[in-house]
Specification:
Layout: E1 7-15, H1 22-31, E2 37-38, E3 52-54, H2 65-68, H3 73-88, H4 96-99, E4 103-108, H5 115-126, H6 136-140, H7 144-153, E5 159-161, H8 168-181, E6 187-194, H9 198-206, E7 233-234, E8 236-244, H10 245-250, E9 257-266, H11 276-290, E10 299-301, H12 308-322, E11 327-329, H13 332-335, H14 342-356, E12 358-359, E13 376-377, E14 383-384, E15 389-396, E16 400-407
Parallel strand pairs: 3-7, 4-5, 4-6, 10-11, 10-15, 11-13
Antiparallel strand pairs: 1-8, 1-9, 2-3, 6-8, 9-16, 12-14, 15-16
Helix pairs in contact: 3-7, 8-14, 11-12
Length: about 400
């Protein structure tokens, strides 16, 4: 559309079980080994079958207590990824760029921190308020990531909260992109985060969708494999700094990619069962927004949950749209399903792989499920691809679908 602004990525940051810095993450991806482990501490949940997760097992940076006392772990994960992204974008210091009303935040997670909810439980069940404090709700509220980032950086622009489960991060990027496109903001901090909780694994355990290969954690998850047995929950955060192109040029910012397409829709059929047609529809919307033919896309970062229903519906939807064996892989086989974080975390890794000219393989994909055929699933040592355009897709409970397209600028 005429009059729309160009939107570029001027910074990014992640917190993941593979690490935080791209060189470290790239090395881990090339090593082709995931970070899933058996959670012995979950043995207390006797009726939960899975014992697997991909936690972040390193210390987060320390921040001034006054600035983070209203943050639970999920907000701290979001802040850590954001601090890295802001530094990369040259926006680490406060000033008119941040406080002048032209910088906003779009951020989401499946929910806030879980532990503060136990304090509400204690009050309601045991009539005991001793665990309640002034920050209990702030840590647990769904908008805790977006609100805490806004306060930490003194932002006075728009705030968009996207608590849409597995599409939280992707939708945040998409809505931030549209906000800048329309000239409503110059800069948007966009992303998603999720802290690890056994309750998240229990959700999928009750649906028989969680992996139970508890004694062989390195062999799971195995998206698109005939013998996969479900997903593994991970934790982390991802943040992208989106900026209006001319604004970025004026301040001399490095540009890592351009956001050129976003598509989102809903299934309107079932709260948990994916819909092939509307999933494909989201991909088509992104391509239409970008003004691209499917043939222009050099790589697709798939949602790849390693659930039977999800893998098959996504594979068929992608095949319906591309009608060719487009190169594709998922990073969830490495870091698990990071829920609200995955859309942003995977987008940043996809951008870096595009700029690297190398795309990670689908580890644990040993025997392709015949129902998933039709795509070029990257295996072995990965693939060297000169891709000018890449796509990153995510799908969530509630029948929520998102697709993002990035263009290489270097």
């Amino acid at each position: 559309m005429d009059g729309l602004k160009r939107v570029v990525v001027t910074g990014g940051g992640v917190v993941s079980s593979l690490g935080r810095e791209w060189p470290e993450i790239l090395s881990a991806l090339r090593a082709r080994e995931n970070r899933v482990r058996r959670m012995d501490e979950w043995d207390r949940y006797a009726k939960m079958n899975t014992r697997l997760a991909a936690p972040v097992e390193y210390d987060l940076p320390e921040y001034p207590r006054k600035k983070v006392r209203g943050m639970g772990r999920v907000a701290l994960l979001a802040l850590t990824a954001t601090t890295q992204a802001m530094g990369m974008a040259g926006l680490a210091e406060s000033g008119e760029e941040l406080s002048g009303g032209r910088c906003g935040v779009a951020y989401g997670s499946s929910m806030g921190s879980v532990n503060p909810l136990l304090d509400f439980y204690s009050m309601l069940v045991f009539d005991d308020l001793k665990n309640m404090s002034a920050t209990t709700y702030v840590k647990a509220m769904p908008q805790t990531c977006a609100a805490n980032i806004e306060v930490f950086y003194g932002l006075t622009g728009r705030i968009i909260t996207t608590n849409t489960a597995c599409t939280s991060g992707g939708m945040s990027i998409g809505y931030a992109y549209e906000t800048i496109q329309r000239g409503l903001q110059d800069i948007m901090i966009a992303g998603g985060a999720e802290e690890l909780s056994p309750a998240d694994s229990a959700v999928f355990d009750t649906l028989f969708a969680a992996s139970v290969k508890n004694d062989t954690p390195k062999l799971t998850p195995a998206a698109y494999d005939k013998n996969r047995d479900g997903l593994v929950i991970g934790e982390g955060a991802g943040t992208l700094i989106l900026e209006e192109y001319e604004h970025a040029r004026r301040r001399g910012a490095r540009i890592y990619a351009e956001v050129i397409g976003f598509g989102t829709n809903t299934d309107g059929t079932h709260i948990t069962q994916p819909n092939r047609d509307t999933m494909g529809g989201a991909l088509k919307l992104a391509l239409e927004d970008a003004g691209l033919s499917p043939d222009a896309i050099g790589y697709v970062n798939t949602h790849g949950t390693a659930t039977a229903a999800g893998d098959v519906a996504e594979s068929r939807a992608t095949r319906d749209v591309f009608r060719r064996r487009v190169p594709a892989s998922t990073v969830k086989n490495y870091v698990g399903h990071t829920l609200g974080a995955c859309g942003a975390l995977e987008a940043w890794l996809t951008i870096n792989m595009m700029n690297e000219g190398w795309f990670a393989p689908n580890i644990n994909l040993l025997e392709l499920d015949p129902e998933c055929e039709g795509l070029d699933y990257i295996t072995g040592e990965g693939a060297k691809i000169d891709a000018e355009y890449v796509m990153s897709n995510n799908f969530a409970f509630g029948g929520i679908n998102t697709s993002l397209i990035f263009k290489r600028t270097a």
